[in-house]
Amino acid sequence: MKKKIILLLIAAVDFLAATQAQNKTGSEKEAVVYFTRDVSSEGLMKVYNALNQKITGKVGIKVSFGGPDEQVLNPELLRGLVAKTGGTMFDGNGLSGNRWTAEMNLKYAKDHGFTAVGKCIMMSETEPINLPVKNGYLLKYARTGKEFAEFDTLISVFRVRPHYLPAFDGNIKNITLCMANRSGKCILHSGGTDENHYHNTEPNILMKAFADATKAALDYKKNWAFIDVLEDIEPNDNCAGAKNMGKIGIIASNNIVALEQCAVDFMIGNADVNEATKAAWKKAHQVGVIEYAEKLGCGKRNYKLVEIK
Predict the structure, then answer these.
(1) β-pairing, 303-307 with 31-36?
(2) Cα 139 from Cα 145, distance rounded (Å)
(3) Tens-digit pLDDT profile for residues 200-244
(4) Of 62, 89, 158, 284, which sits with the fewest C-beta atoms within 10 Å of its C-beta?
(5) In this predicted model, what pLDDT tens digit does every residue of 127-141 receive, in sequence order?
(6) Mean pLDDT score across all residues of the chain
(7) Cβ–Cβ contacts within 10 Å for residue 295, how many?
(8) CA–CA separation, 45 vs 155, rounded Å?
């Protein structure tokens, strides 16, 4: 009897050791997302520095300058980042009348305070470049301005707006639709079928097009860092139960897919509503783009959250 108990104990220990080894292997496969509750320029620098990005050549900082009455990133959060990297902030023109030209957008960059922090430019309409999509779902290429090719180091910073626009409004959108020039936006909105006109595209096609454009941006430039600011966004949609969740913090990763999954977990997964409501929110805001991007090799959704105080 004692021998049987000893054998069972040995088996249990072996099982526990095997499980721990398996978990260790699994954790090694996780992407790391750094998190701070400090929503400030200093807090942003804490999570950015943790990424240990190698800064080489010309640095581009992709932000959205926004439009009139739009909830955009506080540019003061970028002051330390711009000072350290010498980066140039850049954005793409829009399809709406109030964001049609570089002059219009640079006016909003000034009005919102970005030009007071550092240099701001717009992606060219007259000198576009195509970013090839390799083995994507729909697109043969994404399109932006020639200025993008001049950057060696890329940092994408976005204020995540979970209940603002139909497509999930985070870093994937920042380096695809927001980075595209007008023709590039038409390509995305049409699922690659039209370079000159806007289309109100079916969500599944739009998500695949966004995933394709994400892959194109990551393939074209390899040295990326991604930062999401999670704070004080007033809902601007019809999602039942949506509310301003206040200042959550800032997250950063070298892995855009993990970062976006983390943002969804914070801003939808942690919301004080039932699971059916969360599922409805995820469907309404097309968060399936994160899984589509993962399947294209843009990153992994499995992540480890590391808090920096």
Answers:
(1) parallel
(2) 17
(3) 889 999 999 999 999 999 999 999 999 999 987 777 777 777 777
(4) 284
(5) 999 999 999 999 999
(6) 87
(7) 12
(8) 12
Closest among 173, 192, 196, 172 to 183, alpha carbons compared = 196
CB burial of residue 7 (10 Å; 0-12, 13-18, 19+): exposed
Task: Catalogue all structural domains in the chain, each as residue range(s) with its CATH number.
Answer: 33-307 (3.40.50)
Strands 303-307 vs 153-159: parallel, antiparallel or unpaired: unpaired
Residue 99 in this model has a pLDDT that exceeds 50: yes
Exposed/middle/buried for residue 22 (C-beta within 10 Å: 0-12, 13-18, 19+): exposed
